[in-house]
Every structure is written in structure tokens, then in C-alpha cells.
Write a structure and sequence with these properties.
Elements (H helix, E strand, L loop, with lengths): L4 E4 L3 H13 L3 E6 L7 H5 L2 E4 L12 H11 L3 E3 L9 H9 L3 E2 L4 H8 L1 H10 L20 E5 L9 E3 L5 H16 L4 E5 L5 E9 L5 E13 L2 E7 L2 H5 L3 H15 L4 E9 L5 E7 L6 H8 L3 H9 L14 E8 L1 E2 L5 E2 L2 E3 L1 E3 L3 E4 L6 E5 L5 E3 L6 E9 L2 H14 L1 E3 L5 H8 L2 H4 L7 H4 L11 H17 L19 E5 L2 E8 L2 E4 L4 E6 L3 E6 L2 E10 L2 E6 L2 E5 L16 E3 L4 E6 L6 E2 L4 E7 L2 E6 L4 E5 L7 E2 L4 E7 L17
Helix pairs in contact: 4-5, 12-13
Length: 658
């Protein structure tokens, strides 16, 4: 059967990635979308699109019946599952095949054999692949600690917990089961020894139906947060400097692939120590998020290979050689300094300088993104905005080019992990290849690149003043706030910073005398700082201002001169840090609590987020219940602080707890 039209049973960046290859191959494309994704870029770019009613993944992208029906209605003859959602669901693969469509993925039996991590480890052990021992939760002792709880049916860090004390084990098991059930529909979890400083190494494999198996280089994905990958690279620095390790990894990956009769693209993941010993983690029976680094170092189009193999093609005897080095960062809408809290809202602008291509192998910078200017990031799906990939002849150059591009990118509208990514890429330990899964815990990289926002705020204020003068109906040539005689300074307040200045016939009067205004327009401000000119580009949107310069980027929130009293909240209020659903509550009104004690859990963007007591005290109000959907800033609970010295309750109307 010859494939002519492909439905991608996914959304966002991966749908756009598959569509790019389909267009290059002359295939027509079919998108599916939820209510929330109706205006998404992947929908606009497809030749046809089918609406899946609802917003949540359970209502839409996890409905195998709706996806198969959409393929039939749109005339697609093949289905590509992407990654996430139903990409590793054997029943979905069977449903596609039973409908007479081509499944661009491995056989359902292969998916099934790897679908349970518990059974997969047993199968790999029998094939001679090194594995970590499984631990019975009921039999764990202090000698076994620390241990890692993992969801049997899932990945991406969901349903995963590190346990360091036996007292924590029951609660962590409950939390892991709850998250696993929510994310994968299966609450089964298991335990294994936790390697504190392990390195996450994986091998890309490709197999055809004639017995051909490629091992297409390895990737290192050790920089992780919440057990989810943040930075990936190929080749692995550890493998590069460990004699014989690559050959042993490839042999193990090939044995795993052949043991399950695999077909198409897959990834065999291992956990390694610094000595080069490695153990099987799991096999992802799908394309990986980080596949671009393999494409950039080999020149291969892995999606094209997937489609060709599904259409009956042979692999060549050997894959192409890898050359150079590629590094990928995942740009997330989240706040690393505040518990990695996901963000939602409008992406006003996403512009990465120097990008040579999107969604294809390239020598230089590559961008794979699911959003464009004006896209809405909802609370229903993963908060990844884009992947930015750099290829260069050497690892050091790839890191330098990527760090510069990410630092200079214009990202307006949402808080992101951009500064953290840049700090990691420039960190001496990363540049030395000393990367393990505890990197972000061991190294202080959460700080913002711009430590003092004052100069950026001044530039924003001057651009705002220039915009006001440009729109003035009369005397538009006069400086903003100009007076014949000295008067009060102009004052502009942003959340966290206030600037005061005057524009006189002699120029800018500012607190710091060595700052001189060179030029100001509504979009660009040039300041001379101690004899060095600095250029700031300013973009104003409703409720925020983005200021970009070679020094870094800052997002400012203008404060109202006359705030609405109705927006004020009571002291001790815990506000929702993001929109989400209340999934568990651990306290009731009237309960005493200790500082840091979990009060309730919010589910947002496929993860559970713990809301804790900011101080010791008493829960005086609990206005939410399990199942309630809340918006950002909603009051979840009110904790009346208590005086640690005598236990009396205190009321401080000036203090707000968040």
C-alpha cells in the first residue's frame, strides 16, 4: 500500500514537524484539534482539519475512536501518532490497523511488550540487557534508600517520586499512583534503586520489516527538572570519553530492539554512572522529543524514515556517520524559580535570531515550535513552547551559539525558563561535560540573567513617554513632562521596580548621573551608560512590557496608579499560582498547620502541584473543594499565622501570603 495522506493524531510542535516532512514527500496532511486548539498553527498549516469536541486530552487527543473516525472522514490512509497522548497505546495502533489504515509506528505487540515498565525490565533481562532490580514497596528497608517510584505505564516524569525516608514512602506512593492514573489511566507503580548522580543516555534505533536494525548514535539527556528532560545533546560527552561504551550501548540497544520484533523509530533509554556502567530504563516505542539532535548530526529525516518503513521500504546496510555536535533546549512556559510552575496565556512574540531552518536537519540553528506570535498557551496541555537546536563542529561552539541565540530571543507574554537554559549552557560544569540528572540541584542556575532591572525599566518608561508624545494632538515635539521651571520628576512604577527621571532642555536628569539619553522612540531607546551606548528594544502589550537588549531580556508589569480595591485579598491568602483543578485536599478549616505542610494539590498541564502552608498557623478558610477548577490568582485557602513564641494568632493586614 502506498501512503498518500497522513493524519497526525497529535497537536502543536510535533504535528507541525510531521507535516513539514509530509509536504516535502508530496503527501497531504490532516490535523485534528480540540476546542482550545481551534486556532493553533498546526491546524492552519494542514490540508484538512477535523474538530474533536472538548478541551481536555481525555475528551479529544486520547479518544482513539474519534481519531480513527477523523482519518476516515478526511480521507487519510495513514496515521502518525507523534509522541505523547496515544503514541504508545497498543489498542490505538490496533484500531488504526483494523480500520484499514497504515500505522506509522511499531507493531501493537511491540508497543505492548514495552508498555509496562515492570514487564519490559523482565523481558530485557532475559535478552541480556543490564537492568536495575525492582523493589517491592512493602519490603523496602532503610538499606534500600533512596528509591525511585515510577509509573509503570508512562513517562515524562509523571508518576515519579524520589523517596529518601521510610516515613515518606506511603504518601509518595499515593501521590505517584494518583498522578499516574490521571496521566495514563493506569495507577500501577513500581520501585527501583535511585542513582543520585546517574546520567541519562539513550540510543536512537530504526528497524525495518526485513530484519534491518540501525543504531543511529546516542544522545545524553541528563539535564532534567522533575525527571523531565530540559537539555539534550548528541553525541554524549560521557560516551565520547569512555572507551568501548558506545559499542556496548549499541549492542544492548540492538538486542532490545530485536527481542521485541521492533519496526520503525524507537529509543532505548539507559541510566549510566560516571564509570560507564549502564542499566536499561525503558524503551520509547515512538519518535522522541529530542530527535532533532540526531537529525542534525546525521543529516537524516527520521520522520521520512518512519513513513518509508511503514510503506515497506528497506533500510540501507548501515546508517550515515555522525559528525559534529548538536544541543537542544526545551523552552517551557514556566517559572523555574517558583517550583517550575507552568504559565498560561498569550505568546505575543517568539523570535529567535539566526535560525537557519525550522523542523529540518540543518548546520546551524534550528527551531521546532508549536506556537507563533499570538498563540494562546492553555492549561490543558504541556507548557513546552519550542525546541531550539544548535549544530556546530564542536560541542563548545554548539553551546556558545545556542546560549547566545536563546539569550537574544524575543519572548514576550509569558514567563519562561529561558534564563535558566542560558545559565546551564554557559556553566563551567556543563561545558566540561560534567552533566548528571542532579545537575540543577547541584548548581545554582535559577537566577535571572538580568540582576538589576532598573536600566530596563528606565528604557521602558522613556519609550512609553515617547509613545505618549507621538500620539499627542498638540505640542508633540516637547519632551514628556516638560516644564519651564524645575518640577517633580516623571515617575513610572512597574511590579518590583520604580524609576524617576526628568527630561529637560539639557537632556535626561536621572538618579545615576552617568546615564545619558541618546535617542528614544516608542520602540527603541539608546542610553549612554558611563560612555558605553546600550540599545534597548521595547514592545508594549496590554498589561506588560518586553524590553530586550544584548544585556538580556526583562518583562515588566506596569502598575496602575489607582488600583481597584476589589482586587485586594485578605492577609494569609494562598492564591492559585496557575489555572488548574483541585485534585486532593489534606486539611479542613480550623486545622493547625506547620510551615511547608501540604494543604492541597492542583493539577495543571499534566502535572500535580503542591500548595503548602507559608507559615505555622491555622486554616481559617478553605473555599475550594476537590474537582473545582480555579483560575490564576483565585484564593485557595487562608492561613492565619501564629506567633511562634506564645502560640497566639497574629493578624497583619499589611502582609499577604502567596
Amino acid at each position: 500500500m502506498t501512503i498518500t495522506s497522513v493524519l497526525v493524531a497529535n497537536r502543536g510542535e510535533i504535528a507541525r514537524r510531521v507535516f513539514r516532512t509530509c509536504r516535502a514527500m508530496g503527501l497531504t496532511t490532516v490535523a485534528v484539534h480540540s476546542d482550545a486548539d481551534a486556532g493553533a498553527p498546526h491546524v492552519r498549516e494542514a490540508d484538512a482539519a477535523v474538530h474533536l469536541p472538548g478541551n481536555t486530552a481525555a475528551e479529544t487527543y486520547l479518544r482513539a475512536d474519534l481519531l480513527v473516525d477523523a482519518a476516515r472522514r478526511a480521507g487519510a490512509d495513514a496515521v502518525h501518532p507523534g509522541y505523547g497522548f496515544l503514541s504508545e497505546n497498543a489498542e490505538f495502533a490496533r484500531a488504526v490497523i483494523d480500520a484499514g489504515l497504515t500505522w506509522i509506528g511499531p507493531p501493537p505487540e511491540a508497543i505492548e511488550s514495552m508498555g509496562s515498565k515492570i514487564e519490559a525490565k523482565k523481558l530485557m533481562a532475559s535478552a541480556g540487557v543490564p537492568v536495575l532490580d525492582e523493589l517491592d514497596p512493602a519490603a523496602i528497608t532503610d538499606a534500600d534508600l533512596p528509591v525511585l517510584i515510577k509509573a509503570s505505564a508512562g513517562g515524562g516524569g509523571r508518576g515519579m517520586r524520589i523517596v529518601r525516608t521510610l516515613d515518606d514512602l506511603p504518601a509518595q506512593l499515593e501521590g505517584a499512583r494518583s498522578e499516574a492514573a490521571s496521566a495514563f489511566g493506569d495507577a500501577t507503580v513500581f520501585c527501583e534503586p535511585y542513582l543520585e548522580t546517574g546520567r541519562h543516555i539513550e540510543v536512537q534505533v530504526m528497524a525495518d520489516q526485513y530484519g534491518g536494525v540501525w543504531t543511529i548514535g546516542e544522545r545524553e539527556c541528563s539535564i532534567q527538572r522533575r525527571h523531565q528532560k530540559v537539555i539534550e545533546e548528541a553525541p554524549s560527552p560521557l560516551v565520547e570519553r569512555t572507551p568501548g561504551m558506545r559499542e556496548r550501548l549499541f549492542d544492548a540497544a540492538r538486542a532490545a530492539t530485536e527481542a521485541i520484533g521492533y519496526l520503525g523509530a524507537g529509543t532505548v533509554e539507559f541510566l549510566s554512572d560516571d564509570a560507564g556502567r549502564f542499566f536499561f530504563l525503558e524503551m520509547n516505542t515512538r519518535l522522541q522529543v529530542e530527535h532533532p539532535v540526531t537529525e542534525c548530526t546525521t543529516g537524516l529525516d527520521l520522520v521520512r524514515l518512519q513513513i518509508q518503513i511503514a510503506d515497506g521500504a528497506h533500510l540501507d546496510a548501515q546508517p550515515p556517520e555522525c559528525n559534529g555536535h548538536a544541543i537542544e533546549v526545551r523552552l517551557y512556559a514556566e517559572d523555574p524559580a517558583n517550583g517550575w510552575q507552568p504559565q498560561s496565556g498569550v505568546v505575543h512574540r517568539l523570535d529567535v535570531p539566526g535560525v537557519a531552518a525550522e523542523f529540518e536537519p540543518v548546520r546551524g540553528l534550528r527551531l521546532d515550535s508549536g506556537v507563533v506570535d499570538g498563540s494562546l498557551v492553555s492549561t490543558f496541555y504541556d507548557p513546552m513552547l519550542a525546541k531550539i537546536i544548535s549544530w556546530a563542529p564542536s560541542r563548545a561552539e554548539a553551546a556558545s551559539v545556542l546560549a547566545s541565540a536563546v539569550a537574544r530571543a524575543k519572548i514576550h507574554g509569558l514567563r519562561t525558563n529561558r534564563d535558566l537554559l542560558v545559565r546551564v549552557l554557559r556553566h563551567p560544569a556543563f561545558l566540561a561535560g560534567d552533566t548528571d540528572t542532579a545537575f540543577l540541584e547541584q548548581h545554582p542556575v535559577n537566577a535571572a540573567l538580568v540582576e538589576d532591572e532598573t536600566l530596563f525599566a528606565l528604557a521602558a518608561a522613556l519609550a512609553d513617554a515617547a509613545a505618549n508624545r507621538a500620539s499627542a494632538p498638540v505640542l508633540g515635539d516637547l519632551p514628556s513632562g516638560w516644564r519651564n521651571l524645575p518640577s517633580q520628576p516623571q515617575r513610572k512604577q512597574y511590579d518590583g521596580v520604580t524609576v524617576e527621571y526628568r527630561l529637560t532642555r539639557h537632556g535626561l536628569v536621572y538618579d545615576t548621573p552617568d546615564v545619558r539619553l541618546v535617542a528614544a522612540t516608542p520602540n527603541t531607546v539608546v542610553l549612554d551608560v558611563a560612555g558605553v551606548q546600550r540599545r534597548f528594544e521595547v514592545a508594549a502589550y496590554p498589561g506588560l512590557v518586553g524590553v530586550d537588549s544584548p544585556l538580556g531580556a526583562v518583562t515588566l508589569v506596569p502598575l496602575d496608579r489607582f488600583p481597584d480595591p476589589a482586587t485586594q485579598v485578605a492577609a494569609g491568602s494562598l492564591l492559585a499560582p496557575m489555572p488548574g483543578t483541585v485534585v486532593r485536599i489534606a486539611v479542613a478549616a480550623g486545622d493547625p498547620v506547620e510551615a511547608g505542610q501540604p494543604l492541597l494539590w492542583l493539577e495543571a498541564m499534566k502535572m500535580e502541584h503542591t500548595i503548602t502552608a507559608p507559615s505555622a498557623g491555622v486554616v481559617t478558610e478553605l473555599p475550594v473543594g476537590v474537582g473545582n477548577q480555579v483560575q490564576i490568582g483565585a484564593v485557595l485557602a487562608i492561613v492565619q499565622p501564629s506567633d511562634a513564641s506564645d502560640g497566639r494568632k497574629l493578624h497583619d493586614p499589611e502582609k499577604e501570603q502567596e
